[in-house]
Design goal:
By secondary structure, the chain is mainly β. It has one domain: Thrombin, subunit H (Beta Barrel). Helices cover 10% and strands 39% of the residues.
């Protein structure tokens, strides 16, 4: 009696489809997350965090605080490679609990061509790769 071997198609997982528009760069950068009114710094609550990856449209961040979906955050990113500091507004798109009391969240930067976006472009696309001439937005 021969054993039935599963077909190859049955045992392989289907690869996930990448839905992001922008290239992601895996790197750790310090982030200060502020929640509150930008006009009233006395009410703002700040927390330290780190990026796990970064793109022109958003970032994956590790933090020790839980933020509700769709929360508006003011981020200060300390870009280690280019030694730039940028400030951007972002919205929490997803959040999940990790080990050791940490949370991982995906944030989407709010649209607009600002000095922060130009600094991020220069940081993510080094001179060897060239900066794209068309920015989708």
């Amino acid at each position: 009696m021969s054993e039935m071997m599963p077909r190859r198609a049955d045992t392989e997982k289907t690869p996930s489809v990448e839905r992001r528009k922008e290239r992601r760069v895996k790197e750790e950068n310090r982030v200060i997350i502020e929640v509150g009114h930008p006009g009233n710094p006395d009410e703002a609550v700040a927390a330290n965090a780190f990026t796990r990856d970064l793109s022109l449209s958003g970032a994956r961040i590790w933090t020790d605080r839980l933020y509700p979906l769709n929360s508006k955050l003011n981020l200060t990113l300390y870009l280690s490679r280019s030694r730039k500091v940028i400030r951007v507004c972002a919205t929490v798109q997803w959040m999940k609990s990790c080990d050791d009391g940490l949370y991982e969240m995906g944030v989407q930067f709010q649209p607009g061509v600002t000095e922060a976006l130009v600094a991020l472009l220069n940081h993510l696309y080094n001179k060897d790769m060239g900066i794209p001439t068309i920015i989708a937005g």
